[in-house]
Amino acid sequence: MTFFRLLVLLVGSLLSYQIIYTNTYRIDYSIIGLFTSLLFILYTFYLVSQLKKVPLRTILGGLIGLLVGLFIANLLFHGILFNLFDDPKINFIFYIFIYSLFAYAALEIGLKKGDEFDLIRSLTLKGIKGSEKLVDTSVIIDGRIADLTETGFLEGTLLIPQFVLQELQHIADSTDPLRRTRGRRGLDVLKRMQNQTHIQIKIIDDDLPRIKEVDAKLVALAKKKQAKIITNDFNLNKVADLQGVEVLNINQLANALKPVVLPGETLKVLIMKEGKEPLQGIGYLDDGTMVVVDNAKHLVGETLKVTVTSVLQTTAGRMIFARQQNGGNNH
Questions:
Q1: Per-domain residue ranges for the chain?
Q2: Which residue in 179, 188, 183 sits closest to 169, CA to CA?
């Protein structure tokens, strides 16, 4: 590879010298052309080595920037700046300078703005916008997402950023037994999801080094990819909403799927503990909904028939308030 580069460098420089000398018969112009060609080829080698590490969309941005820069330089030189100096030699040097300056500036701008001009993603995801979903650490640890993906209700691709995976690994390596257990469960859930055929799980290397917090990274990455976020974190949900990122909240889904209970309906509930208020007893439905029963404090451990008096919807879930039927102990 080194021999090939040296060969290209030598042939390109000599060819440039020969072409300019043949057309101008000026050695000074030819030497300038030789060194210009030499610098251009060296810079091309440097670009190729750097572009191997750069995403394709960034390369496209750079190429578009380069073409725009050369086009603007051409307009300026053949319009406003044409034969600006009396000396042809100075005009030639100025010609090289203008083209190089505009080409370099436009190339740099194009490379840096390439991420914003994501042509390939726009074409690929046209018509299927929002098919990609970023998964938050909390929802992996929670585990219900694996049950949800098994049902086939989630479609598209679930993206797991490396920084989420690293946070999960950090939790699994914690000295706190509870955190360690949660982290390991999250890794098990992720492995279970990868083995499913209903959904595609993709680990991505995209990172935003300037942003330190995982939640902030997740929101910024979702905006960049035009993806949704799957989470059960209330605060992350609010931050994402404020920034216009669509969120799929597992807790909200669970609450939406709970059976509708209306005032006046009859339920059977096991009183499991005393309530905070005087004489109240607390029971739970099969889906985990809390039922607060008046005058049932002394009936802990008994199953009662109760009548729903009201239903309260909170951010934490739903609470049902009820009273015993006929005011007595019904089993």
A1: 2-119, 128-256, 266-327
A2: 183
